[in-house]
Amino acid sequence: MELITIKDIAKALNLSTSTVSRALRGSYEINPDTKKLVIEYAEKYNYRPNPIALSLKENKSRSIGVIVPEIDNPFFSQVINGIEAISYNRGYHVVIFQSHESFERESINLKHIASRRVDGLLISLAGETNDVSQLKELHEKGMPIVLFDRVSDEINTHKVISDNFEGAFTATEHLIREGRRRIAHITASPYLSITKERVKGYIAALNKYEIPVDETMIKYSNYSSENMELIIDELLSETQPPDGILTVSDRLALGCLATLKAKKITIPEQISIVGFTNLKAASMLEPALTTVVQPSLQMGQRSAELLLDLIERKSSSIPPTYQTFKLYTELIIRESSVVG
């Protein structure tokens, strides 16, 4: 199929080329109905922008930087898919970096991004990050930045997150309604926003049902099998071991399942398990994993849209109004948590 141009779209819709160009960039100056008309026509006839031509015309790199903790984490892979889909359709390249949960690696990535002349940055903070001064300085110097999933209140910009509190609350409440009273929470780095929000949701559910909060039942973990084995050993050695476990992510739930099975603990008869993310593998496990849906693809798409809007209105004299966008969560109940 022959690719169409902006001139072709303008002629077909009886619009000026400048109107079509701004509509395709998502400009806030264009009427939403006109923007919708242009975008639908462009998608129908396979319009694809030329990033090289655009960068020369606008003196921009037409590229954005993305920093994630790990690309091989299925959650972040899906987020990247969402980011790339939106960026490609709007004529931007995506340059991806990994922090590997390291504050030092994240800092190096930020320096590299600042020197590469990218037009903006999307970032989900590393597990070790408790100092965002470098990121804050980059933002204050004019770099458009959007934070997603793991965010910081110290930076005044757009943020896209899941409803972590509600997700953890609902998951914990489900375990309680299944008759569990000794519920552990295996979570991630204490520095992370997702950790803090999910711990709060877990505690709120215990409080609602007047179940005492036992700090020994809250464990902070990395993703190594050795660490998971240590945590499970600690929990099982308690005078009253857990009869339910909520993990901060499905990745931790996988490690938890494997470790408990190796110790001949039956699931869910002895211990019920709930994860958080809803990875594709969750429904294929034995037993299938109850988990909280975290909409990763939508998170990537929304984050990219917000960043590109910031980039393309950068020259506007009207300062942006920053918001935190909270995406839905939903509990998918499967065999790992249902007793009897």
UniProtKB/TrEMBL annotation:
<keyword id="KW-0804">Transcription</keyword>
<dbReference type="Pfam" id="PF00356">
    <property type="entry name" value="LacI"/>
</dbReference>
<dbReference type="InterPro" id="IPR000843">
    <property type="entry name" value="HTH_LacI"/>
</dbReference>
<keyword id="KW-0238">DNA-binding</keyword>
<protein>
    <submittedName>
        <fullName>LacI family transcriptional regulator</fullName>
    </submittedName>
</protein>
<dbReference type="InterPro" id="IPR001761">
    <property type="entry name" value="Peripla_BP/Lac1_sug-bd_dom"/>
</dbReference>
<dbReference type="Pfam" id="PF00532">
    <property type="entry name" value="Peripla_BP_1"/>
</dbReference>
<keyword id="KW-0805">Transcription regulation</keyword>
<dbReference type="GO" id="GO:0000976">
    <property type="term" value="F:transcription cis-regulatory region binding"/>
</dbReference>
<dbReference type="GO" id="GO:0003700">
    <property type="term" value="F:DNA-binding transcription factor activity"/>
</dbReference>
<feature type="domain" description="HTH lacI-type">
    <location>
        <begin position="4"/>
        <end position="58"/>
    </location>
</feature>
<dbReference type="InterPro" id="IPR028082">
    <property type="entry name" value="Peripla_BP_I"/>
</dbReference>
<dbReference type="InterPro" id="IPR010982">
    <property type="entry name" value="Lambda_DNA-bd_dom_sf"/>
</dbReference>
